[in-house]
Amino acid sequence: MQSLASKLVPSAVQKLIPYQSARRLGGNGHLWLNANELETCAQYGDLSQGSNDHYHRYPDFLPHDTAQAYLNYCEQQSGKLDCEIVAVRGADEAIDLLVRTFCSPGNDQIIICPPTYGMYEFCADSFSVKTCKVPLLENFQLDVENIKKQLPSSTLLFLCSPNNPTGNGINEADIVDLLEASKDSTLVVVDEAYIEFSKHGSALHLMHKYPHLIVIRTLSKAFGLAAIRCGFLLADTSVMAYINRLIAPYPIADPTAEIALKALSQNGLHLMQQQTSKLIQVREWFKGQLMLLDSVQHVFGSETNFVLIRFSNNVNSYQYLIEQGIVTRNQIHEPALNDCIRITIGSKESMLETLNALKNLN
């Protein structure tokens, strides 16, 4: 039976032969003279004194140890998963890969549900792919019926749960409803960059029933490793077969893979969970304190490492905080988020400084 991925993938990708890098081709031997590397190289001080003294060699085609370690972590929460996983340079590369793999410029469209993460539309625009927008409802949940109307003409549906910038998780029942409705038409992508901060479970456990479900994850948020640019894309074999044709020859640098493996060790996971628990406590305290301020109209619920706040009309909270040396994220560009700013949760000391500044906001 033909998979949905094979029906949707453009003919150019269908015919594409993946670039055969030296590491991808592999081989056995004791002299490695196939990748135009320097067999001997200068020692750059401390740079070459770490756990990896082979920086003159290209990294693995795909960092299997890193990907497997992350899959093991996922299975601790979701049970045994029947899917493939690939490490990518942050969740943003996963989004870009999906658009380039399954969309044909000038012909296909994706669906997004604003207000949501801006990279979905950006990646589509950069590849001349149309973006169909089905705005969230007033409670920031999905407008399921209107999304369904767009599924027959759309290749990808991007859902962000928990959602950025609104902070809420998407009802799993709605995701299942859309997975059922899209079986023959659309690949459904659930971006779970903030899942560790959420009370909602991951959508990963749905993969065994819905092979057209794709999940994006990252080490940038709860793991606190934004600088290393390491994310993960989890999908059925039928989907990954085409993604692997477009993935870069050496997508993850060895130092990145080393740091990721440490973060995914038993000790690393324990530290992440402690850090996440502490952040959630600070988030809830901060929300409570915000609601006591006269300038604050509404504090939205959050299952992320940030809070979305609506201030009273005509109060320029963003500019005021800038003047106090506190940089937040203005949401004025989103029609549904007038008078709103998004504030990342930092240390309790940072949030206390922010609160003290806001007490003087008129």
How does CATH name the architecture of the largest domain? 3-Layer(aba) Sandwich
Task: Give a count of the beta strands, DSSP E runs of length 2 or more.
Answer: 11
Largest sheet: 7 strands, mixed
Biggest sheet, spatial arrangement of strands: 1-7-6-5-4-2-3
What is the fourth-level CATH superfamily of the largest domain? Type I PLP-dependent aspartate aminotransferase-like (Major domain)
Cα-based radius of gyration, to the nearest Å = 22 Å
The parts where pLDDT drops under 50 for at least 5 residues are none
Secondary-structure content class: alpha/beta
Beta-strand percent range = 5-15%
Mean pLDDT: 91
The topology string of helices and strands comes to: HHHHEHEHEHEHEEEHHHEEHEEH
- Tell me, what's the shape? globular
Helix content: 25-40%
What is the count of DSSP helices, taking H or I runs of 4+ residues?
13
Total domain count:
2
Keywords: Amino-acid biosynthesis, Aminotransferase, Histidine biosynthesis, Pyridoxal phosphate, Transferase
Enzyme class: transferase
Domain Aminotransferase class I/classII large: 49-355
InterPro entries: Aminotrans_II_pyridoxalP_BS (IPR001917), Aminotransferase_I/II_large (IPR004839), HisP_aminotrans (IPR005861), PyrdxlP-dep_Trfase (IPR015424), PyrdxlP-dep_Trfase_major (IPR015421), PyrdxlP-dep_Trfase_small (IPR015422)
